[in-house]
Amino acid sequence: MMKAISHALQHRRDLWRRQLGIWLFDQPVRASRGTPGRVVLVRWDAKFGDAIVSSWIFDALRQARPGIQVDVITTPAMAWLFRDHLGADHVYECPKRAGYRQLATLARDLGSIECLVHFSKQLKMKDLFFLSKVRTQHVAGLDDHLQAIDIKLGKRCQGMHFVDKFRQLAVALGVTACTTDYRVPCLPTHEQAVTAFWPTHRPVIAVNGYGSGKSRRLTRENLQRLIDLILTQIPEVDCCLLFAPDSRDEVLSLVADAHNSRLFCYPDSQHIADAIAQIRQAKALISVDTATVHIGVGLNKPVFGLYNPDTENLQDWGPRHAAAEVLISQATEPQDINTLPWDELAQRLPLWWQRTTGIDEKTA
Fold first, then answer.
1. 159: left (phi over 0), alpha (psi -120 to 50) or beta
2. Rounded Cα–Cα distance for residues 258 and 261 (Å)
3. Which of 160, 174, 277, 316 is the most exposed place for a label (fewest CB within 10 A)?
4. DSSP assignments along 305-360, one per residue
5. CATH code that applies to domain 21-172
6. pLDDT tens, position by position, for the chain (364 residues)?
7. CATH class of 188-355
8. Rounded to 5 degrees, what are φ and ψ at 241?
């Protein structure tokens, strides 16, 4: 009860701040403010999976408009991805919770640009402040209610997956045809270490039971239940458990207690590149986490995504693969991935696995 009240109060506060931000900072873009030839993407949300979904746009813009400069604003933790692997011409690092002075300095450092892209569905007061300071010809975004956004893509993109939303952005910026295949980074040191460790005698399904937030994390008991289903329903495979540093001890303990040669993990996994390397080696992926789902899709792996009942999230970020399956948990208030329809999962797993035969995997 108290959590619901707190959530309602926070929502009301956010709405009030947005309205204040609109009153203070929302203003129409003036064409004279910027110069053509530079596009800047605001990606300070620091979400790895989101970056993978839009990773193709750098090449698409350059192929359509040779000489264009495509820059990115992101957090220090994500800078390496855009700078070293996705092809940003320049990366501006910005803390996830930057202050107004930092945002004003960032806007000054950007200089004069053609288009600023901000794809949050509803911009907050700090976003509006930042937009008011940038010297740009255009602002592209999904928040059609704002005067500051003149390339309005919200209504045009309603109901679309985020791949298609970014495709509409590309069209608005002059792209007539492009491929939207995801670009997944390959870090040789991590790839070589995982390859040397990886078993080769049986196909492997990578399993990730840990998403962001409590509602998207399987309990140890339910992760064991998922593993048992896989090993029972698909007897010809092994399972590799993926984990982030905060779940390492639990996974190592689970594997040790199982005493099952068909269940293993890569104990030295510390970086997202280790997870990428393991998914690359695996035959398929089962995951509650959208970041690893997008990595799997980018590597052309059959994916079985386990999602909470959030229609908008699934519509925006669901797996786009010919051999993708999705199963929705049952609890809605609050959402809880542990309330999966387990009997249905047991029935669908072997059918999904049969569909993976003949999938042409990418090796890059």
1. left
2. 9
3. 174
4. EEE-S-HHHHHHH----TT-EEEE-SEETTEEGGG--HHHHHHHHHHHHHHTTT--
5. 3.40.50.2000
6. 555 566 666 767 878 888 999 999 999 877 667 788 999 999 998 799 999 999 999 999 999 999 999 999 999 999 999 999 999 999 999 998 899 999 999 999 999 999 999 999 999 999 999 999 999 999 999 999 999 999 999 999 999 999 999 999 999 999 999 999 999 999 999 999 999 999 999 999 999 999 988 999 999 999 999 999 999 999 999 999 999 999 999 999 999 999 999 999 999 999 999 999 999 999 999 999 999 999 999 999 999 999 999 999 999 999 998 889 999 999 988 999 999 999 999 999 999 999 887 655 544 4
7. alpha beta
8. -90, 125
Tokens (6 digits) for 29: 């873009």
Amino acid at 214: K
- Taking the CB of residue 157, how many other CB atoms lie within 10 A of it? 21
Distance CA 229, CA 92 (A): 46
Token pair 């007061």 in the structure block, residue: 125
Cβ 296 vs Cβ 319: under 8 Å:
yes
Amino acid letter for position 6: S
Its pTM stands at: 0.93
Domain ranges of the chain: 21-172, 188-355
User: What's the CA gap between 63 and 176, in Å, rounded?
Assistant: 10
